[in-house]
Structure formats: C-alpha cells, structure tokens
Amino acid sequence: MNYLDFERPLAEIEGKAEELRAMARANEEMDIEAEAAALDKKAADLLTDLYKTLTPWRKCQVARHPDRPHCRDYIQALFTEYTPLFGDRNFADDHAVMGGMGRFNDQPVVVIGQEKGSDTKSRIERNFGMARPEGYRKAIRLMDLADRFGLPVITLVDTPGAYPGKGAEERGQSEAIARSTEKCLQLKVPMVSVVIGEGGSGGAVAFATANRVAMLEHSIYSVISPEGCASILWKDAEKMREAAEALRLTAQDLHKLGICDHIIAEPKGGAHRGKTETIAAVQSAIAAMLGDMAQMTPEDLLKDRREKYLAMGSKGLAA
Fold this sequence. Notes:
Layout: H1 8-26, H2 33-52, H3 56-63, H4 71-78, E1 79-84, E2 97-104, E3 107-114, H5 120-125, H6 133-149, E4 153-159, H7 166-170, H8 173-186, E5 191-200, H9 201-208, E6 212-216, E7 220-222, H10 226-233, H11 240-247, H12 251-256, E8 262-264, H13 275-292, H14 298-310
Parallel strand pairs: 3-4, 4-5, 5-6, 5-7, 6-8
Antiparallel strand pairs: 1-2, 2-3
Helix pairs in contact: 1-2, 6-8, 8-9, 10-11
C-alpha cells in the first residue's frame, strides 16, 4: 500500500498491527489478536476522519494516487468483446490513449480513455497519460466510427493534461485538442464521460465534452494543475494548496456549478482501497446515464449537449 503524506499516522498504526501479526505467525504461542484488533479499529476510525473533510489539495493527492484503478482496469472489467483500435492514420499510435469497440452490459459501444500506466515501464510507455496530437486524432477517428455505426461513446478521463513537448506542438497539439472537442459536440450518438482520476486542462476537455459527465468522489477536473496555477499567479509552485482552493476543482464544487452531472461515491479511503467496488459503482453510473438518453433522437442529443455547455457556469455562481 502506498500512503499519501497526510496518511502517515494511519500508516504507522496499520504498520504496527501488521508487525504484531507477523510476530504471531513466527511464534504460534503468542496471542496478539485483541491488541491487533484494537489497532485495526483505531486505524479504521482515523481513516474515516481523514477522508471526512478532505481539502481540495488532499483530493488532488488522492486523485493522483498510483494505486487507483486506471483506464485499463475499467476496460478489462466492464467491456466484453473489447477490440482495441490503434493509430491516427496520419502519424503514429499514441499509447497514452486507449480505445476500441466492445460491449457494455451487452450493448455495443465505443470506449476511449487515457491510461497512465501502473509501473515505471508502463508509465514511460504511456507518457503518464499525457496525450500527444496523434492521441486526440485517434480519439476523433474512434468517435467518427461511433457516429457512423450509431454506437454510444464512453470516455474515461485520467490525465494531468496534454503533453507540452516541442514535438507535440510541432504536430499541432492545440488544433488536435480543438478538433477533438468539436467532434464531441458534433456526435449524433449518446456520449458519457467519467473522470476517474485527474481531469487536467484541454487534455481532459477534449474527451469530456459529453452529454453527461460523472466524476468519482475524489477526482479533480480543472483548467490547469494547482502547481501550474501557483507558478503563474504567485511564481511559486509551493502555493499549490492555495491554488487548489481557488480553482474549485473538486467533484463537489463542479457539481454545484453544473459542470459535473453525477458524483460517484468511492469506498472509504478512496478508490485505491476498494477497486472492485469502485469499478462496480462506475458501471452503475454509466448504465444510468446511457439509460437517460436511450430514447433521445440524434437531434435531441445535439440539442441536449449544446444547451448543457451554453448554460455551464450559470449554476451555483453565488456559492
């Protein structure tokens, strides 16, 4: 288990409980279960207290936790007959973006998502979930296929932002993001998006301009990272806590503003402490959102999406 900075007291308690149990395994005559159980209860109570009132910055840390279920985990668990598609038919295949056709609850769909990787090798291969232009152009190609065959589009958002490298800029990063966002708005099929971790900047918007947007309870969605915001406003990246407060990037803030339609509850202690439960909750949320749009015509879907984004931000401004 990887512990976050604010979870250090919890790590100490759980570590002591595990030490006691390790001693008991080594010496069967030792009876430590009552003491270990007391530590377990203390750890559970502390976990509840820590996650009851998470600050925006702590939510950022939880959203970035390396053990959270990633796009690959959701695709493997929720989509049957998944057939991945590769390349943008122009330059290359971007490994930061996964996508293809499959069945969700036995309904044919197109799924697209950003994959960060789960270890050093895969994180480098996936570029830490930061897509290059070819990634957005691959997403556009998949959305075109969905539109052609009348398949709903499901996107799973988890990215710090679009890749800011020189090569990406040379190949038209901003244009690719803009065209991907435009394609989302033009789809004549239902489109739902779930922010499963980080929703960073235009890299997230290009995947999440959907009819329905859901966010996991401890996920974040913002125009810029707290560190980037702090560097611009205060010339000091260490002011990321103040920036996180000001950005209103939590699921709860964004739901008040009408940007997020649904908040998906996470297990106590975050998605990384209950991957199976989290994936099941996301499955239920996606099914409900698709069900809401099942009877909509293509014209209804276009109108619904247009009205959603024209009205965005008017809700909860006084909060």
